[in-house]
Specification:
There is one protein chain. By secondary structure, the protein is α+β, with helices and mostly antiparallel strands. It is about 50% helix and about 15% strand. The protein has eleven helices and five strands; from the N terminus they run ααααββββααβααααα. Helix 6 runs parallel beside helix 9 (about 150-160).
Protein backbone atom coordinates (compact mmCIF):
# COMPACT_ATOMS: atom_id res chain seq x y z
CA UNK A 1 0.00 0.00 0.00
CA UNK A 2 1.30 3.45 -0.86
CA UNK A 3 0.31 5.14 2.39
CA UNK A 4 1.11 8.67 1.28
CA UNK A 5 -0.91 8.42 -1.95
CA UNK A 6 -3.94 6.59 -0.47
CA UNK A 7 -4.36 8.61 2.74
CA UNK A 8 -2.58 11.86 1.99
CA UNK A 9 -0.36 11.28 5.04
CA UNK A 10 3.22 10.03 5.11
CA UNK A 11 3.99 7.52 7.87
CA UNK A 12 7.32 6.35 9.31
CA UNK A 13 8.48 3.15 7.64
CA UNK A 14 10.43 0.13 8.85
CA UNK A 15 13.51 1.65 7.23
CA UNK A 16 13.11 4.67 9.55
CA UNK A 17 13.28 2.54 12.69
CA UNK A 18 16.13 0.44 11.33
CA UNK A 19 18.30 3.56 11.00
CA UNK A 20 18.02 4.11 14.76
CA UNK A 21 20.07 2.50 17.52
CA UNK A 22 19.27 1.52 21.09
CA UNK A 23 21.78 1.84 23.94
CA UNK A 24 22.64 -1.02 26.28
CA UNK A 25 21.09 0.98 29.14
CA UNK A 26 17.76 1.29 27.29
CA UNK A 27 17.79 -2.46 26.54
CA UNK A 28 18.38 -3.21 30.22
CA UNK A 29 15.57 -0.83 31.16
CA UNK A 30 13.09 -2.69 28.92
CA UNK A 31 14.25 -6.07 30.23
CA UNK A 32 13.63 -4.83 33.80
CA UNK A 33 10.28 -3.31 32.80
CA UNK A 34 8.93 -6.59 31.44
CA UNK A 35 10.23 -8.48 34.49
CA UNK A 36 9.17 -6.17 37.31
CA UNK A 37 7.03 -3.14 36.41
CA UNK A 38 3.69 -3.45 38.26
CA UNK A 39 1.63 -2.29 35.24
CA UNK A 40 3.20 -4.88 32.94
CA UNK A 41 3.14 -7.64 35.59
CA UNK A 42 -0.61 -7.07 36.03
CA UNK A 43 -1.28 -6.65 32.28
CA UNK A 44 0.51 -9.89 31.41
CA UNK A 45 -1.18 -11.94 34.14
CA UNK A 46 -3.82 -13.41 31.72
CA UNK A 47 -1.10 -14.76 29.42
CA UNK A 48 -0.37 -18.45 30.10
CA UNK A 49 3.14 -19.88 30.36
CA UNK A 50 4.70 -20.49 26.95
CA UNK A 51 3.06 -17.52 25.21
CA UNK A 52 5.79 -15.52 23.54
CA UNK A 53 6.60 -12.62 21.26
CA UNK A 54 9.58 -11.86 19.03
CA UNK A 55 11.40 -8.63 19.82
CA UNK A 56 14.28 -6.66 18.32
CA UNK A 57 15.84 -3.37 19.24
CA UNK A 58 16.10 -0.76 16.49
CA UNK A 59 19.31 -1.01 14.49
CA UNK A 60 20.21 -4.41 15.97
CA UNK A 61 19.73 -7.78 14.27
CA UNK A 62 19.78 -9.72 17.58
CA UNK A 63 16.41 -11.40 18.13
CA UNK A 64 14.95 -11.63 21.63
CA UNK A 65 12.12 -13.71 23.08
CA UNK A 66 9.55 -12.20 25.42
CA UNK A 67 8.15 -15.37 26.95
CA UNK A 68 5.87 -16.24 29.84
CA UNK A 69 7.58 -18.68 32.19
CA UNK A 70 6.56 -19.53 35.74
CA UNK A 71 3.88 -16.83 35.66
CA UNK A 72 6.48 -14.14 34.82
CA UNK A 73 7.58 -12.36 31.67
CA UNK A 74 11.17 -13.00 30.68
CA UNK A 75 12.99 -11.10 27.92
CA UNK A 76 16.00 -13.12 26.78
CA UNK A 77 18.19 -13.38 23.68
CA UNK A 78 17.16 -15.94 21.09
CA UNK A 79 14.44 -16.72 18.57
CA UNK A 80 11.09 -17.53 20.23
CA UNK A 81 9.58 -20.94 19.43
CA UNK A 82 6.12 -19.82 18.23
CA UNK A 83 5.64 -16.05 18.63
CA UNK A 84 2.25 -14.35 18.55
CA UNK A 85 3.61 -10.83 18.01
CA UNK A 86 6.74 -9.26 16.52
CA UNK A 87 8.08 -5.94 17.90
CA UNK A 88 10.92 -3.57 17.04
CA UNK A 89 11.52 -0.99 19.81
CA UNK A 90 13.29 2.36 19.38
CA UNK A 91 15.17 3.97 22.26
CA UNK A 92 12.66 6.82 22.43
CA UNK A 93 9.78 4.36 22.76
CA UNK A 94 11.55 2.52 25.57
CA UNK A 95 12.10 5.78 27.46
CA UNK A 96 8.49 6.88 26.90
CA UNK A 97 6.96 3.56 27.94
CA UNK A 98 9.12 3.03 31.03
CA UNK A 99 9.40 6.56 32.44
CA UNK A 100 6.31 6.44 34.66
CA UNK A 101 7.01 4.55 37.87
CA UNK A 102 3.35 4.60 38.92
CA UNK A 103 1.86 3.81 35.50
CA UNK A 104 -1.34 1.79 35.27
CA UNK A 105 -2.16 -0.87 32.68
CA UNK A 106 -4.13 1.81 30.83
CA UNK A 107 -1.11 4.15 30.83
CA UNK A 108 1.14 1.39 29.49
CA UNK A 109 -1.37 0.32 26.83
CA UNK A 110 -1.97 3.91 25.75
CA UNK A 111 1.74 4.58 25.41
CA UNK A 112 2.34 1.36 23.48
CA UNK A 113 -0.55 2.26 21.16
CA UNK A 114 0.88 5.75 20.63
CA UNK A 115 4.32 4.36 19.84
CA UNK A 116 2.89 1.85 17.35
CA UNK A 117 0.29 3.94 15.58
CA UNK A 118 0.91 7.66 15.92
CA UNK A 119 3.32 9.76 13.93
CA UNK A 120 6.11 10.58 16.38
CA UNK A 121 9.27 9.18 14.79
CA UNK A 122 11.24 9.84 17.99
CA UNK A 123 9.46 7.00 19.79
CA UNK A 124 8.54 4.28 17.33
CA UNK A 125 7.55 0.70 17.99
CA UNK A 126 6.93 -1.42 14.93
CA UNK A 127 4.38 -4.14 15.59
CA UNK A 128 3.38 -7.08 13.43
CA UNK A 129 0.83 -9.70 14.46
CA UNK A 130 1.94 -13.22 13.58
CA UNK A 131 -0.83 -15.27 15.22
CA UNK A 132 -4.41 -15.43 14.06
CA UNK A 133 -7.15 -13.55 15.92
CA UNK A 134 -8.44 -16.81 17.47
CA UNK A 135 -5.03 -17.65 18.90
CA UNK A 136 -4.65 -14.11 20.29
CA UNK A 137 -8.01 -14.56 22.01
CA UNK A 138 -7.09 -17.99 23.42
CA UNK A 139 -3.74 -16.67 24.67
CA UNK A 140 -5.42 -13.88 26.66
CA UNK A 141 -4.52 -10.74 24.70
CA UNK A 142 -8.14 -9.55 24.67
CA UNK A 143 -8.09 -9.62 28.48
CA UNK A 144 -5.10 -7.26 28.42
CA UNK A 145 -7.04 -4.85 26.21
CA UNK A 146 -10.00 -5.00 28.63
CA UNK A 147 -7.72 -4.48 31.65
CA UNK A 148 -6.58 -1.23 30.05
CA UNK A 149 -10.04 0.17 30.80
CA UNK A 150 -11.33 3.56 29.80
CA UNK A 151 -7.90 4.91 28.79
CA UNK A 152 -7.55 2.27 26.10
CA UNK A 153 -11.16 2.72 24.95
CA UNK A 154 -10.70 6.49 24.75
CA UNK A 155 -7.60 6.36 22.54
CA UNK A 156 -9.10 3.60 20.40
CA UNK A 157 -12.26 5.62 19.76
CA UNK A 158 -10.22 8.70 18.97
CA UNK A 159 -8.59 6.68 16.19
CA UNK A 160 -11.68 5.12 14.65
CA UNK A 161 -11.83 1.89 16.67
CA UNK A 162 -15.20 1.98 18.35
CA UNK A 163 -16.45 -1.59 18.28
CA UNK A 164 -15.03 -5.07 18.89
CA UNK A 165 -15.39 -5.60 15.14
CA UNK A 166 -13.14 -2.60 14.46
CA UNK A 167 -10.56 -3.97 16.91
CA UNK A 168 -10.72 -7.38 15.27
CA UNK A 169 -10.25 -5.72 11.87
CA UNK A 170 -7.17 -3.83 13.11
CA UNK A 171 -5.64 -7.04 14.52
CA UNK A 172 -6.40 -8.67 11.17
CA UNK A 173 -4.69 -5.80 9.36
CA UNK A 174 -1.66 -6.16 11.61
CA UNK A 175 -1.29 -9.81 10.70
CA UNK A 176 1.92 -10.12 8.68
CA UNK A 177 2.11 -6.35 8.11
CA UNK A 178 4.04 -3.72 10.01
CA UNK A 179 2.39 -0.95 11.96
CA UNK A 180 3.37 1.68 9.36
CA UNK A 181 0.89 0.03 6.98
CA UNK A 182 -1.68 -0.23 9.75
CA UNK A 183 -1.33 3.46 10.63
CA UNK A 184 -2.55 4.13 7.09
CA UNK A 185 -5.37 1.61 7.46
CA UNK A 186 -6.51 3.25 10.71
CA UNK A 187 -6.53 6.61 8.94
CA UNK A 188 -8.73 5.01 6.28
CA UNK A 189 -11.10 3.64 8.98
CA UNK A 190 -11.57 7.20 10.25
CA UNK A 191 -12.81 8.23 6.79
CA UNK A 192 -15.52 5.52 6.67
Amino acid sequence: MDTARETGVSYPSMSTIDTMTVSREAKEKLIAFFADHPAWVEAARPLPDGVCSRLRFAGDDQVWSLIRRGGRSVLEPGEPPNPDLDFVFSEGAIAYMTELDDATIGDFATRLYECCFLLDESRLVELRVIAGVGQLFRHGYWKIVLKGGWKVLKIARAHGIGTPGDLRRVFGLLRHKNSADVRAAIAALRKE
